[in-house]
Amino acid sequence: MNIPDNLKYTKEHEWVRLEGDVAVVGITDFAQGELGDIVFVEVETVDETLDADEVFGTVEAVKTVSDLFLPVAGEIVEFNEAVEDDPALVNNDPYGEGWLIKVKVSNPADVDGLLDGEAYKNVIG
What we know:
Blueprint (H helix, E strand, L loop, with lengths): L7 E2 L4 E6 L2 E6 L1 H7 L2 E5 L6 E2 L4 E7 L3 E5 L4 E6 L1 H5 L2 H5 L8 E5 L3 H4 L4 H8 L1
Antiparallel strand pairs: 1-2, 2-3, 3-9, 4-6, 5-8, 6-7, 8-9
């Protein structure tokens, strides 16, 4: 299982990569593996400002639909349209082409409160 050390993680299986004051957010390799074949990703919160832990969208797999939780408070500034066109990108490249959203972070220090790779490994066992 791939858990890059340069990312931050949540207990809800989202990952975060900070690029200046913008956070790139996706779901982890573990999450996509548990969900199975992803067939649809819905994010209707672009241009909205949400608090950390609020639902920003959903991911639908063959057998289930799961909420996506925002790891840090901020304004959702972009949804990865490539994932909208080809949801399998989330399965095939969750940390690269399969990213989901970009968020203008309200407080970059929030990212420091997220899990590092080792702590996330402990969460998933």
